[in-house]
Amino acid sequence: MRVLLLGANGYLGRFVADRLLADPAVHLTALGRGDDADVRFDLANGSPGALTRFLDAVHPGVVINCAGATRGGARDLTRHNTVAVATVCEAMRRSTSSARLVQLGCAAEYGPSQPGSSTAEDAVPRPGGPYGVSKLAASELVLGSGLDAIVLRVFSPVGPGTPAGSPLGRLAEAMRRAMQSGDGELKLSGLGVQRDFVDVRDVARAVHAASLSAAQGVVNIGTGRAVKLRDAAAVLARVAGYGGALHELDAQPARHSGLISPRTEQNPMEHIGSPAPYPDGCGSWQQADVRTARDRLGWRPRINLEESLADIWMEAACRI
Questions:
Q1: Which is more confidently placed, 275 or 13?
Q2: Per the confidence metrics, is the pTM higher than 0.85?
Q3: Element (H, E) at 151
Q4: How many beta carbons lie within 10 A of that of residue 124, not counting itself?
Q5: Element at 56 (helix H, strand E)
Q6: Pairwise CA distance, residues 181 & 178, whole Å
Q7: In 178-229, beta strands by DSSP E
Q8: What is the distance between the alpha carbons of residues 240 and 217, in angstroms, rounded to a whole number?
């Protein structure tokens, strides 16, 4: 099976590439902006015609799109998440390859949900920020393209390679600094937020399954279990061997825009969070209904959160 992977150098794309390369039946070609891509192409600025010519030359059976941006203003997010997908869809419609499209969406497309509920694929999307809006627009383009296509709405990916600037990545870095300096406590805020954390390697397995499946439409990829960031912090402390105390503060003023405020002489403790520590526009709660992934893809998550956090910690501990 010939597979064209877009965004192979990104957080999710690297693990998808590893998973596909382990399948001897897959012939993988990576397309991206980096020098190590098999073919260099900028989806946000390239023309559909140029991509169509490449598709006709390579003739893939499956196109997997892991490309996109998670940070930036509305204009940049629209270019990299929506315009880029419009280019992919138009190129595939023009191509003679008749390839299947696997698009990686995200849970931010849904927006806030009722605490205690599980979000199913038929929920009405109400994204709470420009990132979710840009990804939802991309999903709608895919679903309305007439292509053989599936959108995997990935909830909160964790595990090895977790970006240092992500909430759990920043939490691990704060803990590393505390251990390095001998701080006996961490003061944290905004830890009441609950998210459905799914290991990035399980996400890669889901992408692989989707590439082989005939399933179309939207499929949630998560664990079906929301976890408080407070509980994740406690697990991370345990796997890190951090013996200090974790104290939760009241919500910090809105001026704190990041997950960790700078250390100061007046207050040398770490402050994790703000009133909305997850900048995904999804409020205090998000949990996936994953029955569709089980029934249509034969997929279930395998890796527990403790293992994912241990891998995050291992990478954080190696930083100087």
A1: 13
A2: yes
A3: strand 149-154
A4: 6
A5: helix 48-58
A6: 5
A7: 185-189, 194-195, 197-199, 217-221, 227-228
A8: 40
Please check whether residue 167 is in contact with residue 229, taking contact to mean a CB–CB distance below 8 angstroms.
Answer: yes
Cα gap 220→154, rounded to integer Å: 6
Residue 320 tokens, joined: 């100087």
Q: In this structure, are residues 103 and 150 in contact, taking their beta carbons and an 8 Å threshold?
A: yes
Tokens coding 312: 């995050």
Token digits for 318? 């190696």
Half-sphere exposure of 7 (CA within 13 A, CB side): 24
Structure tokens at 85: 């997908």
The answer as to whether 242 is a domain residue is no
Q: How much is the average pLDDT of 256-283?
A: 48
Identity of residue 186: L
| Beta bridge pairs of residue 30 | 5
CA angle 140, 141, 147 (to 5 degrees): 110
235 inside domain: no
Say if 192 falls within a structural domain: no
CA–CA distance, 7 with 31 (Å, rounded to integer):
7
SS3 53: helix
Tell me: the pLDDT tens digits for 299-314?
A: 999 999 999 999 999 9
Residue 64 corresponds to which tokens in the numbers above? 């997997």
CA distance linking residue 45 with residue 83, whole number of Å: 8
Residue 24: inside a domain, yes or no?
Answer: yes
pLDDT at 258: 40
Contact 105, 218 (CB under 8 A): yes
CATH code of 46's domain: 3.40.50.720
Cβ neighbours of 59 (radius 10 Å): 13
Domain count for the chain: 1
Least confident segment among 51-60, 85-94, 101-110, 247-256: 247-256
The three-point CA angle 89-77-104 to 5° equals: 50
